[in-house]
Write a structure and sequence with these properties.
binds S-adenosyl-L-homocysteine; 35% helix; elongated; 349 residues
Length: 349
């Protein structure tokens, strides 16, 4: 069977090259072709001797996901890329160009098992985990399309990263690898719906990454209505885990809070939220919900958003209201893929 070189970092490639009796410096050359120059055909790797290229053709391959669709919005500030994987699965990656640099939002699973009522990615359940190489391919798709450096990555696309723990950790190491993308851990955010034991595990990993928790409610009653996972883990335990994360990593935790008209946006909700987190150093990311024809939820009006935000700020909480980047391209989790599937008669999943 041919060895797939895609996704191997320099160390792994060096071992493989050496085990196959080639000089180890060839690994660095292959690495540069694959990840810096986006060359995947061995025949085009002209720095390698012909004899090695022929040997590679017979013994190795580069199985890299392909870009099948791509759309931009917000004057080109947001681009969504749809990748097709080896088994036909489709994966969405969102690229956002901010003033401080480019940020890429990565999917970690095909589908999702979490069942959150506002989320398009979970409507058909979980199909499978993505491998670390498939996550890496999403970053390289960005480089291929834009040929620009990536400043930060957020694991906030389709899927629950902490349910795909080992692949996610391996992916983070690859993204940080200076021979691959050299992205600082400090510029990486992992977003979870609050799988408590995995938050402790991540804290003990000792990586200075930012943890974002999709809280979306100030208490268990409301949270149970929005996130089924909340029946397994009490909100108090989620906050306790967030506190542990801060103590271990000294990284301020982000709480994501989707604002849904009539559900979680009144004054009492905001007051209760402040009491819940207490003095924990944290940042609130308020996100007006993005509805679709399938998800009948509506954002509150701007006045209500601002008064919710003001209560948090009056309690000394740092908040941002997420800009509705990418609305016209259906950037919220899973929405583009859904649209693409509806418009194509193909067998994608
Ligand atoms: N499973 C992880 C990561 C995927 S969802 C988690 O739960 O955090 C990540 C984020 O996508 C959510 O917190 C929310 O900010 C956003 N999101 C999903 N569906 C949305 C919608 N319909 N409108 C607005 N934001 C949405």
């Amino acid at each position: 069977m041919k060895t797939n070189l895609w996704g191997m970092g320099l160390e792994e490639l060096t071992v493989w090259v050496r085990n196959n009796n080639w000089p180890s410096f060839r690994a660095k050359q292959i690495c540069d072709y694959l990840y810096k120059r986006h060359i995947i055909s061995f025949d085009e790797m002209k720095q390698l001797p012909q004899i090695m290229r022929t040997w590679l053709e017979e013994n190795a391959c580069v199985e890299k996901p392909v870009i099948v669709n791509q759309i931009s919005a917000d004057d080109g500030k947001t681009t969504k890329i749809l990748l097709k994987l080896k088994d036909g699965s489709l994966v969405e990656t969102v690229c956002m160009h901010h003033e401080y640099g480019n940020s890429v939002c990565i999917s970690t699973q095909v589908g999702c098992a979490m069942g959150c009522i506002f989320c398009a990615s979970t409507q058909k359940g979980l199909f499978r985990n993505l491998s670390s190489e498939e996550m890496l391919a999403q970053l390289f798709a960005f480089s291929e399309v834009f040929n620009m450096p990536i400043h930060s990555i957020v694991l906030m696309g389709a899927g629950e990263p902490l349910q795909n723990y080992n692949h996610v950790i391996r992916f983070l190491h690859m993204a940080n690898d200076k021979n691959l993308l050299n992205i600082s851990y400090r510029n990486i955010t992992v977003s979870t719906c609050g799988i408590v034991p995995q938050i402790y595990k991540l804290a003990d990993e000792g990586l200075p990454i930012t943890l974002a928790i999709s809280l979306h409610a100030p208490n268990d009653v409301i949270r149970n209505e929005l996130l089924p996972i909340s029946r397994n883990y009490k909100i108090e335990d989620v906050i306790r885990a967030a506190r542990y994360y801060f103590t271990k990593t000294k990284r301020r935790v982000t709480f994501e809070y989707i604002l849904i008209q009539g559900k979680n946006t009144d004054k009492e909700n905001a007051e209760e939220l402040c009491r819940l987190v207490g003095k924990l150093p944290c940042h609130f990311n308020l996100i007006p919900v993005n509805g679709t024809e399938h998800i009948h939820l509506y954002p509150p009006d701007i006045k209500e958003i601002r008064s919710f935000q003001k209560i948090l700020m009056d309690h000394g909480k740092e908040t941002t209201v997420r800009k509705q980047m990418g609305d016209e391209i259906q950037a919220a989790c899973g929405q583009l893929k859904r649209r693409f599937l509806e418009n194509s008669k193909s067998v994608f999943r």
